[in-house]
Amino acid sequence: MNVDDLLAYLSIGGSNILASPLAEWMTSSPRFAAFVEVYRNKIRKKIRIEPEAEGLRDLLIELEAAYLLLQEQRFEIGYEPYARDESRSPDFAVTYRTNLIFNVEVTRMRAGVAERDGRLIDIVCSKLSQMMPNMINVLMIFAEDNTGAALDVAEAMKRLKVRAERGEVGLMTQFDFRNTPDFFKYFVRLSAVMMRSKHENSLSQFAALWENRQAKQPLPLAIRTSLQKCG
After folding, report:
1. CB 139 within 8 A of CB 208
2. Where are the alpha helices (DSSP H) in the chain?
3. Around 118, how many Cα atoms within 13 Å sit in the side-chain half-sphere?
4. What is the pLDDT of residues 12-28, one digit of tens each?
5. What would the mean pLDDT of 106-127 be, rounded to a whole number?
6. Rounded CA separation 117/218 (Å)
7. Rounded to whole angstroms, how far apart are CA atoms 217 and 230?
8. pLDDT interval class at 49 (50, 70, 90)
9. Which CATH fold would you assign to the domain 59-229?
10. Residue 14 to residues 8, 108, 201, Cα–Cα distance (Å)
């Protein structure tokens, strides 16, 4: 299917916020166009389930992540490969050089959010349960403004660990951790956090990559380098 046919199949009209970026990305990247064609039914279903602007913005950053990952020729990606029933799992499984698989979960940090470092901590905590055990897991956060460039991700993660080690009741209650050991059971599954910030064109801009030194499956150097170069 060509680009126009895919957009028509997805029922994306000219006023839809997905229309211009998707057309641009599919035109510039045959690999991304092939990805959209393979997963066109899944994408169309998401559009129909969440037709409002906020839901479409969430979908847009998922598709932007796919576009960026596919800029690395050594990456092959699967879209929601672990999804089953109502369980929460990462958005993408990425295969590097045919034999090394890592997961990428994508989320959005909305513009104008006060106390952004606190919001970053909330985002990380809310996503820990989606990290797969015994695998490399990367959380990719897209900020809707230039927040990512200003945030000190390492410092925010240090504060999070201090709060968890103290067994802060509010933290445990808010994110359904039973206690400190339960928090770290999931925290050690997180290999890295990658921040991207809004750019003047239709793509975000790389801002920061924090690696979790406590991760059971650390981020290999080759994957870190490729992720930093994507886009």
Report:
1. no
2. 3-9, 19-28, 30-38, 40-49, 53-69, 116-127, 147-150, 153-165, 169-174, 180-187, 221-229
3. 4
4. 876 688 989 999 999 99
5. 83
6. 23
7. 21
8. confident
9. Trna Endonuclease; Chain: A, domain 1 (3.40.1350)
10. 10, 23, 18
For residues 72-88, one letter each, b for 16 or more C-beta atoms within 10 angstroms of the residue's C-beta and e for the rest, the string is: beebbbbbeeeeeeeee
DSSP string, 88-124: ---SEEEEETTTEEEEEEEEEE-TT-SSHHHHHHHHH
Structure tokens at 35: 């990805």
3-state secondary structure of 138: strand
User: Which residue type, as a one-letter code, is found at position 128?
Assistant: L
Residue pointed to by tokens 């957009």: 7
Strands 205-211 and 136-143: unpaired
Spell out the domain ranges in the chain.
1-51, 59-229
Q: Which 3 state secondary structure label does DSSP give 130?
A: helix
Residue 97 pLDDT more than 60? yes
* Helix or strand (DSSP H, E) at 12: none
Give the pair of three-digit tokens for residue 204: 């975000």
Quote the pTM value. Answer: 0.92
At 180-211, the pLDDT tens digits run 999 999 999 999 999 998 765 667 788 789 99
